[in-house]
Amino acid sequence: MDIVPLDESRDLSLWEDFVASHSQATNYHQLGWKTVIERSFGHATRYLMAMNDGVVVGILPLAILKSRLFGRSVVSLPFLNYGGLLAHDENVEEGLVSAASQLAIDEGAESVELRHSVAHGLGLVPKEHKVSMLLPLASDTDAQWKQLDAKVRNQIRKAGKSGLTVEIGGTELLDDFYAMFARNMRDLGTPVYGRIFFETILDVFPLHTRIFVVKSQETPVAAGLSSIFNETMEIPWAGSLVEYRSLCPNMLLYWEAIQFGIQHGMNVFDFGRSTPGEGTYRFKTQWGAKASPLVWEYWMKDSRPLPNISPTNAKFALAIKLWKKLPLSVANLLGPPIVRSIP
Predict the structure, then answer these.
(1) For the chain, which domains are there?
(2) Is the dihedral of CA 23, 24, 27, 31 positive or negative?
(3) Radius of gyration of the chain (CA)
(4) pLDDT score recorded for residue 312
């Protein structure tokens, strides 16, 4: 078995065919995300293939992050909910992990982070701090509606009675989505992704990406960007404006997205990752979504402690507090260069 880097002049179909044939493949194993990461954030990527007599038996997409603030790391995949190893057996996985750790050493990185939905072991250090929230979808919207809790149904009705409307589309809704999303992130004290990130996703995956925007008259008050892969519809990025939350725009947003998923043959609605017990976790639970543990596994240089650059880290409490007070224009200018180093 040989571990080789992806050769984009000849290996694209080999990679995509392997992803299409593997039962554990995720949306983010698709090659298009390589373009998204490189174009949006400027990070180098290394996409590794395990080959056996010319046949692909495993893959591992990697991005190399270099930051003066947070050091260097190799991640599969940054900014996204899933990634990591995709292989036929443990021997292949071991070969890919060995190649990834050597890449980290060569690049002067302190860690390799693999974002898995199940533990692979392989001498890696696990961290189980997040879960995916997954909702099985009914065969039609009427059946799904009947499965909802009465409180959820009432909140959806309230949004409609409050005059909120929903628009579904693509690039033509990007400005509305981004204006709302950037404001929401500033209010949370979190640097926002650059607009080019979402623009590139829409460009690379035009048929499998939709934007949902909830409006009060002409004002975007909630929005989400959805991505479809196989029979799963996921909303990784969404938010709403706090001053409109009494009108329940989030409830209308997700109900419209769930209906869209059912109408387009989806079997699962993925609400994205959450921290158990926090507000977003409780929000997703009320829809009937169930927690599916995520296992992020690490190779660490010199047995160092696991990295923790999440907003829950107490070291960042003051920075978050100050960020919330920034003018929106300043936050939108400063956010993208910072967030590109926070995987």
Answers:
(1) 2-129+295-313 (3.40.630.30), 132-293 (3.40.630.30)
(2) negative
(3) 20
(4) 61
SS3 10: coil
- Strands of the chain (E only): list them: 2-5, 44-52, 55-67, 71-76, 86-87, 111-116, 125-127, 131-136, 164-169, 209-216, 219-229, 232-240, 268-274, 290-293, 295-300
210 phi, psi to nearest 5 deg: -135, 145
Q: What is the DSSP-derived secondary structure letter of residue 172?
A: G
Residue 5 contacts residue 48 (beta carbons within 8 Å): yes
* The overall pTM is greater than 0.85: yes
Q: Quick check: 239 and 220 in contact, CB under 8 A?
A: no
Count of CB atoms situated within 10 Å of the CB of 92: 22
Q: Which residue has the higher pLDDT, 60 or 323?
A: 60
- Rounded to whole angstroms, how far apart are CA atoms 249 and 160? 9
Q: Give me the pLDDT at residue 308, please.
A: 67
Closest CA to 264 of 227, 223, 224: 227
Please state the φ and ψ torsions of residue 249, each to the nearest 5 degrees: -65, -35
Provide the 3-class DSSP secondary structure of residue 142: helix
Per residue in 106-136, pLDDT (tens digit) is 999 999 999 999 999 888 999 988 999 999 9
Residue 330 to residue 343: CA distance in whole angstroms? 22
CA distance 198 to 213: 14
Compare 213 and 342 and report the one with higher pLDDT. Answer: 213
DSSP 222-270: EEEEEEEETTEEEEEEEEE-GGGGGG-HHHHHHHHHHHHHHHTT-SEEE
Give percent helix, percent strand, percent coil of the chain, each to the nearest 5: 40, 30, 30
